[in-house]
Amino acid sequence: MKNKFSLILPDNTECAFCRYLNGEIPYTIVMKDKHIAVMVTKEQRGYPHLLVIPTRHCETILQLSDTECSKLLKVLRDVSIAIEKEYNVEGISVWQNNGISSNQTINHLHFHVAGTTKNQGTIWGEVEESSLSITEGISKKILNSLK
Predict the structure, then answer these.
(1) Rounded distance, CA 45 to CA 63, Å?
(2) Nearest to 54 by CA among 81, 76, 86, 84
(3) Which of 2, 8, 50, 138 has most Cβ atoms within 10 angstroms of its Cβ?
């Protein structure tokens, strides 16, 4: 799918993240305000593994507003602090992909924030999906530190 930039994006006819945020599909949302949301991904590539996204449908980092940029970075920092505090991790990975060639699979901007796993860092291969009860438990711990 082409956009006003030269990036080639995934062809998602319905945005999964927008559907999660609208409550159409059950998903663990840690917090959500006018600009930014934090969700616990079912694919735990680190522990814990969260997603920080704009609440407005925004396909890539190239389309963020100045307000979204500043709020997003603050939430990324706050979530990283919460992960370190609650999980006592050895490291924190933050990554984000724009376009199919960079492995973007959902056409809604999202930043991954994950505590590194002992001796493995982050897991890039296949991972088992976590249940909502597991992701809800992660959410409670993170939310406790974000207050």
Answers:
(1) 27
(2) 76
(3) 50
Query: What is the C-alpha radius of gyration for the chain, rounded to an integer number of angstroms?
Result: 15
DSSP secondary structure letters along 101-114: GGT--SSS--EEEE
pTM of the model: 0.90
Q: Which residues sit opposite 121 in a β-bridge?
A: 117
Express each pLDDT in 12-52 by its tens digit: 778 999 999 999 999 999 999 999 999 999 999 999 999 99
Pairing state of beta strands 92-95 and 49-54?
A: unpaired
What is the CATH T-level fold of the domain 16-146, as seen in this structure?
A: HIT family, subunit A (3.30.428)
Phi, psi values for residue 37, rounded to 5°:
-130, 155
Distances (CA, A) of 28 to 13, 33, 49, 60, 63: 22, 15, 12, 22, 25
Cα–Cα–Cα angle for 67, 24, 75, rounded to 5 degrees: 25
Where are the chain's structural domains? 16-146
d(CA 127, CA 73): 27
Q: How many CA atoms lie within 13 A of 90 on its CB side?
A: 8
